[in-house]
Model the fold of this input.
Amino acid sequence: MTEKINVKHGDIVVPGDILAEGMDFLPSGNAIREDNKIISTSLGLINVKGHVIKVIPLSGRYVPKQRDAVIGKVTDVSKYGWNVEIKSPFEAELNVLDAFARRVDKRVPLTKMIDVGEYVFAEIYDVSKQGYVKLSMKNRPYQKLSGGITIEVSPSKIPRIIGKQGSMIKVLKEYSKCQIIVGQNGWVWVKGDAEKIVALSKAIKLIEEKSHTHGLTDKVKELLTEVKK
Amino acid sequence: MAGSGNEKLIVNGKRLDGRKLNEMRPISIKSGVIPSADGSAEFKIGDTIAIAGVYGPRKMHPRRLQDSTKAYLNVIYTMDSFATTERNRPGPSRRSKEISMVMKNALSEAIILEKYPNAKIDVFVEVINANAGTRTAAINAASIALADAGIEMKDLVTSIAAGKINGKIALDLFQPEDNFGEGDLPIAIMPRNEKITLMQFDGNLTKKEFKEAMELCKKGCKELYKMQKKAIVKRFKEQGGAE
Done:
């Protein structure tokens, strides 16, 4: 049997591309094995690590994964908790028992705690095979988001907004002096002065559009220097 | 088929629009033409123009059609009233329903529907100018739009038609050839394994001619596949996708 790899790190592939032949490699991410070939299943970037070939999608909706931190919008209140929209094909559920670290007073109506239309920052702690998503806000950084606005970006661009070891988000926070929370599902929540938020949303749009160009951090800094005081 | 074989469709070894028998019309493909859609594409082949938009995977409504094992694929094909030389009645028709159905069957073979349980994928294809070969153009546009939307697929779907004109097999018929030719065979294949996902036929062909037409289609599809791949990648290369 011949072992052959047809792609290299950083290549763009489309569905149906043969990435490698032979049993020497393992598929991961958006790639599958068909007989002795590894095939890409979506439009994405190639990531080769040793014998593992991974396809990181370039477009598409957010697919929930366990332990992801997401921002969701409460769409409905049920008997036991809240239904939360997380910009994915599947709706998420936040149970009262998972919503707060402290004990909940049973007499307080649920809408008094979190109302329909409010945003929450939560962790995905379970995704069932049928796509039912369970959220949790028991641990420390997860909370209800009061005030502020949410900016929508493509979920595939979220790593760019955070940057390498959080370099980009650091710049954004330092220059705009806003509170920023980034959800893996493509929602960015910001809170601060109105002028600064306007500049910040411009910067985020710039990152989204020119995500892979060189010197992006400098451009973002340039855009935000006006509001930095 | 109105074909009686009396009309001259091949003159001096060339077709009426100057093409050779195994030649396709000029093709141009663009992806990401609809900003509000999750994925979109425009496919032009000669004078036929198809625009596809993909929305989803999203929540399935009505809920009784939800499937807990796989996604529901909804394909809607429309031909606009101004697409043909004579105005055609807008709205769903017998013809558009049939094409929607065959397109759904052709595409669902390629999409990994099991990845999106309880969800729905909407594919809307609009033909804004028709000059024969609209269903093949629609399938091509839809498959590019699906890839653009980031939906997981085993392979792209490419589609082209072959037919018989003046007793000879020709690739990619245009309107006069479709009207006065002797046969029309649109097929769609998944190019990697050459799996056939759509095959329709009307007219008269012998067994030998049929095989010849199939071979011609497969060759055309291979050529188309390269163009499709280029068009999908192009949008992301422009953004500076490759690091």
Remarks:
- The interface with chain B takes residues 10-12, 14-18, 30, 32, 34, 39, 41-43, 45, 57-61, 89-91, 129-131, 156, 209-213 of chain A (CB under 8 Å).
- Residues 69-145 of chain A form a domain with the OB fold (Dihydrolipoamide Acetyltransferase, E2P) fold (CATH 2.40.50.140).
- The mean pLDDT of chain A is 90.
- Residues 195 and 227 of chain A are 8 Å apart (CA to CA).
